[in-house]
Amino acid sequence: MLTSPLPVRRSPHFDLHIDRIGRGEPVLVIPGFGCGNWLFKPIARQLQPRYSFLLPDLPGMGASPDAGCDYSFEQLADHCHFLMQRLGHPRYHLIGISMGGFIAQKLLLQHGEAVASCVLLATTAAHETIEAIPLLDETQLHAMYQMEPAAMVRANSEATVHPGFAQRDPAAYQLLLDQRLRHVAPLRSLLRQRRAVARYFESPVPLHLINNPVLLLTGDADRLVPTQHATQLADQLPNASVTRFAESDHWFFWERHHETAAAIATFLAGDKATESQAE
Asked: What does pTM read for this prediction?
């Protein structure tokens, strides 16, 4: 386990477990709400010959302990950046998935000079030109955790993957269910994440200040963060492009993992495409 202390604003205790896959150019991958680093590993394994993926479990997720108190995404972005510095990566690529995209935006604003390029998957932003998305409140999260775990996982998965995924790739769909059931987040840590999300949406993010190359990936049938959010984000980011994946939902990077890996590899290699559609 690779850990580091938080150099600034140390009220929360961040002790992040990190897995490394590959030995090439460093890529920091920040996972989404309630998920550990397992959700990106299938793609990381496809790309490992060229890239070294640093995959943290966020506080309370996977093998990382709870932060001990509430925190902000600014604090977590600082910690992730300084951790990369301590690991010997003064410059690196950045990937943020869903909620991880919120943290990635903060990191780009606070330490953008260290980020060579950024990929944002299935995400949105707090901005006056971008429509809000519905969020589960704490009462709803408490109610969800009253469900039997397997039923909760299946219900959450059915709400975030394309209805055709189970028929198209039943083995991959079952693996997703198994992984989500194996890694159910502790409710206490999930509530801390939810509060950090609420704080994130309190103030608009100055997206126009992010000059790094950004690739926005989205499923064309995403019900949680509809695909137009990628276009709205791209309109505000000075150096952004969009790729959409056909017949895929919020978890398109599992549903279309080969196509997602190919899009990421092309972008990280420096071939910055304009808006495109992945069939």
From this structure: 0.93
